[in-house]
Amino acid sequence: MSYYPDDIASDIGGYEQLHRAFPTQPQADDSVAVTSGTSPALIDEYVSDAGDPGITIVPAGK
Question: Number of folded domains in the chain?
Fold first, then answer.
């Protein structure tokens, strides 16, 4: 099962959408400046639709 980040705001503040279908919107670059005092740094947050994928733990990728 594959998910694609989409730079469209979700109904949860601060999160963008994560979809199974490849996004049709133009791609956007996300970046954050990191120094030894600020790493690790969160670049972006994504959320899937309610009930998708229907599990509580996402297994590690390949």
Answer: 1
